Amino acid sequence: MASPSENNEKQAxxxxxxxxxxxxxxxxxxxxxxxxxxxxxxxxxxxxxxxxLFFDDADRAAQLLGITLTTRGxxxxxxxxxxxxxxxxxxxxxxxxxxxxxxVAICEQMGEAGVNRAPIERKVIRVVTPGTLTDSGxxxxxxxxxxAAVAPAELPGRVAVAWMSVASGSCLACDLHLAxxxxxxxxxxxxxxxVPESLAPRLASLLADSVACTRLADxxxxxxxxxxRLRERLGVQSLEGFEIGHSPxxxxxxxxxxxxxxxxxxxxxxxxxxYLQGIRLWRGEAYMVVDPVAxxxxxxxxxxxxxxxxxxxxxxxxxxxxxxxxxxxxxxxNPVRDLGLIASRQRQLEEAAGLLETNAQTLxxxxxxxxxxxxxxxxxxxxxxxxVALRQGLAKLPGLAGHLGEAFAEECAALRVDPRIVELLxxxxxxxxxxxxxxxxxxxxxxxxxxxELRSLDRDSGQFLAAYEQRERERSGIANLxxxxxxxxxxxxxxxxxxxxxxxxxxxRRQTLKNAERFITPxxxxxxxxxxxxxxxxxARERQLYEDLLRELQNHVLALQKAGQAVAxxxxxxxxxxxxxxxxxxxxEFEPTPMLQVEQGRHPxxxxxxxxxxxNDCMLDARQTMAVITGPNMGGKSTFMRQxxxxxxxxxxxxxxxxxxxVLGVFDRIFTRVGASDDLAGxxxxxxxxxxxxxxxxxxASERSLxxxxxxxxxxxxxxxxxxxxxxxxxxxxTNRSLALFATHYFExxxxxxxxxxxVNLHLxxxxxxxxxxxxxxxxxxxxSRSYGIxxxxxxxxxxxxxxxxxxxxxxxxxxxxxxxxxxxxFLDLPNISESNPPGLxxxxxxxxxxxxxxxxxxxxxxxxxxxxxxxxxxxxxLELIYRLKALSPLRPEAPSTPARxxxx
Length: 905
Hints:
Elements: H1 4-17, H2 26-37, E1 42-47, E2 50-54, H3 55-65, E3 70-75, E4 78-86, H4 90-99, E5 104-109, E6 122-128, E7 146-152, E8 158-165, E9 170-177, H5 181-187, E10 190-196, H6 200-207, E11 212-216, H7 223-234, H8 248-264, E12 280-281, E13 289-290, H9 292-297, H10 312-316, H11 322-333, H12 339-354, H13 360-364, H14 370-378, H15 384-403, H16 409-415, H17 420-428, H18 449-476, E14 482-486, E15 490-496, E16 508-512, E17 516-520, H19 522-531, H20 534-553, H21 557-583, E18 589-590, E19 596-601, E20 616-620, E21 626-630, H22 637-653, E22 661-664, E23 669-673, H23 686-700, E24 705-710, H24 718-736, E25 739-743, H25 752-755, E26 759-769, E27 772-781, H26 789-795, H27 800-819, H28 854-866, H29 875-888
């Protein structure tokens, strides 16, 4: 029984359908009636070989696709604006529209031309939205595109979320804090979120533009109807087996999600969703949390610049199948905490490593995407060539399963699909079918006698007509008699006016021309009745046989989905094993206590890029929870911290890790605060973003968290930043007690090692020679002696005069800091620091000096000599230096005086 809200919605739909379109042409009346049912989508209205868009839809499509906007005729006394795309290339246009966030309703012709010039019957067969893509031409092969729905949960501040990959049929649900919604949707690769109208304003600011939101009326999320609808859709009597029977919120979100997916993919309103693999409850506590900030800073799937390479994913992805690549992405984004599951994945890697010399990987190469193909079979949208790929792939599975051992026991069972599927496809499908069913030639010759006869008529009609024409010439004695075909009048025998007296008696006049007559015979009429529509009837028969084939295959959808998951798992294990062996990675060991011990660790991405990567050790545990890391810019601090975070993440994914040995505890989260960035659109400065991320770490980091912090407090004044950095470091060390890598240029923070238990100093080594710096990239105990910032600036190409002046200013700051506790002012004149080009030198005049003692003069001269790089001086600078030293010298000669003349006495 429909709820009142459903009845209201149906009434509104009826009102839209019965709007007064009488002033429009019949075709426009049909179009506007269909458009009224899909007001928020672009309607692709099939007209022969084109999908046409009209009015506002045409304007929008022309703008987004760059296609021609035209006007043709009038309807309701207004010009009809229209734009169209060819049917045969529609996928490329759909892909561009979906990428732009648009939804498209596909309206197909459902019959032949009607009587009394009525429009052909048309119907929307599916709605393409960002989250409901199933076509292989629209989906990225190696990424998921998930649809999600959110509903209020039972507890305040929480929401119920359900999400599914429509292309593969997997569906999950959980409830979580509202503040965690955006991060969770990103980790699940959700691109479209269904939101009830009442909740939409609250979510708008929270989600921003992170996901496309589709608003639905609240009744779609009513808990009272959700249970009944879900049981209908899933074909079950109870929801207890899906672990959501206790939660009205989870049922509401799941119901709205599945109903929307069913409507969009053209399934019946109350029918079962045959491609849906049930609903599983997502247990967040089983996963290590890697929030969006950490995913970005660690460059898991995209670089900081938004590129797809070089990243951890691109480094690890050597999968032979697209399903394996998708599984790899999912595991990287969702590392687990279950030691049993981690151990199981490690065993698979070890077994796969021993099978790399076999032809198992060869069998994996080119395998069909079984999961996605199964969904398209269930939706009856599968293309013939995809079925051929399925047939070829299924034939390889027994051989693949034969190579696998105990570690892949579950996968082997899933790979042993019913052999009748291969037989079915082999008996009915031709060896090399065309791309689409409408091209014909999909069903194998010899399978269906009726189809073979129709094809023979179509194929052999020319041969028959040539032989018939020759027989009629011989029978009638008319040498110029012709047999032909006309689209209007059909087949005919054409005889010139001068030969009409010789025609046989069974000729019946069909058409009169100026100089000839056209006739038909009973034999030719019989052939016409069979042949004139042979091709159309052959295509119709082939379509029927193809649909029969899909109906039989739909009984095996679940088995094909499980086989696809097994292939992905096996493929990923082989790819990771090959990478680990080639790169000499080790199996991490887990301990019950929080710790991270890495011997000769390396960065999994950079070790493949840098010619000679320098490995380093890392040791954090209950006695040594925080390492304060100092050293020069470009010395390798960020690389060292990131590589250890990536090693922790890879270990929790069940991967081998780039190290000689690795022992670690089970972590609950990885936090990162790395680099400088701003959020101009959100009105947040670089420093505000920095402090926001630091606040999140301090509020949520636990003893089982790994914290990576790089250069905190650099976005404000020196002492403010230093104070904040020290307070944050102290909080992490004493309250959060997280295992932390804390990089800084504030050397004052190195004193924490003596003040706080569990804090140690590390530094990245570098050496300086003749004003240049060489980075050793070696992590050593103790604090760095200096920052080498000016030397790095010189490497960056800063003018020599600027770096020399910076050296002078730096020395002045250091003297002021020793003399005063106040913060130096960059705009005050610094004592004893002269510009390299003092006034007066241009004229050769010595600068005016104040009265100085000899000791002060000696000190000033020594200061200048100590800060002068003689090898870097130009001739003019050397001359200027001489003048400066001469002006300061106590031996400077006085101006000669005029001697007194002696007067004669």
